[in-house]
Amino acid sequence: MEFLYEYGLFLAKAVTLVAALGAVLVLIMLTTTRHRPERGELRLTHMSEELDALKHHLKEELLDKAAFKAYEKAQKAEAKARDKGDVPPKPRTFVVNFHGSLDAHEVASLREEITAILTVAEKEDEVLLMVESGGGMVHGYGLASSQLDRLRQAGIPLSVCIDKVAASGGYMMACVAERIYAAPFAIVGSIGVVAQLPNFNRLLKKHDIDYEQHTAGDFKRTLTLFGENTEEGRQKFRQELEETHELFKAFVGKYRPELDLTKVATGEHWYGQQALALGLVDEIATSDDLILKKSADRNLIKVQYQMRKKLTDKIAHSASTTVSALINRLVEKDRGL
């Protein structure tokens, strides 16, 4: 009985402790939520300052005391001249990253980032976009490309750098830029359209399962997962793909009229050096090269809009990322070194 009494007392204390901790956690979550922006948060990172700090640290470690003292004196004199207005301020380069998924939901952040830049950009400023995407939904990447076109319409120079991949919808975004950079082995191009789906109609018939689909309009549905597909539906589906491809080619041709679309709009992709020879990109360089080069005479500011995510959104994003990673691994396996 004494054991049961002590066990019951311990259990009561444990439950009380857990309940108290739960109440504290709920209070923290409510307080945090109350102070969070409703949609997201815009973050600015002064990349030039980070590079300057790195340079300062290395100089301090590598130079002797006299040389380092002279370096610091020159830096202070430059900063003083800039504060007095004797030296004009450096123009700004706004750096934006776009890591696209199949559904291009990242465009929700991109549109906020572009809007933020447009509100403060001056004529000397420019935008450097790092794209990494193998493409995906036509409407999603079409909207992302339209966001980049807002910069061009406003007269703000736009450059795009491709470190790994900008294919299909990714290249649709890249081609909007006045200048495209690519790493030597970045995957570029894939100006084509693809659609595929399984059909389980024979399997359903085998197990005596009926499937009904009712539409108003001859081509409300062309191909279906469970119904019996017709040749007429297949032809219409292929026609729609061809029409989308023609729109894709026209879009690329609008921004890069010098391209020979008969050569590059076949759905193939190329590596950076090959893409340069074909005119798909303008220069071979990595984003690290560009940032270091531009930091010499420009202020680099990274612009990132962080969307608030619900638990369901996080799960969906994780699933989308996993699918994208699996597809990319299959591509890499097919063309691995």
TrEMBL record:
Entry-linked InterPro entries: ClpP/crotonase-like_dom_sf, Peptidase_S49, Peptidase_S49_N_proteobac, S49_SppA_C
Domain Peptidase S49 N-terminal proteobacteria: 2-148
Entry keyword set: Cell membrane, Hydrolase, Membrane, Protease, Serine protease, Transmembrane, Transmembrane helix
Keyword Cell membrane included in the entry's annotation: yes
EC number(s) from the headed UniProt entry: 3.4.21.-
GO MF entry, a single one: serine-type endopeptidase activity
Gene behind this protein: sohB
Domain spans labelled Peptidase S49: 151-299
Family: Belongs to the peptidase S49 family.
GO cellular component: plasma membrane
Keyword Oxidoreductase belongs to the record: no
Signal peptide: none
Top-rank EC class of the record's enzyme: hydrolase
Name of this chain's protein: Protease SohB
Chain segments annotated as transmembrane: 6-30
Domain of life per record: Bacteria
NCBIfam families given in the database record: PRK11778.1
Localization of this protein: Cell membrane
Any one biological process term the GO annotation gives: proteolysis
UniProt cross-references to SUPFAM superfamilies, sorted A to Z: ClpP/crotonase
Coiled-coil blocks: none
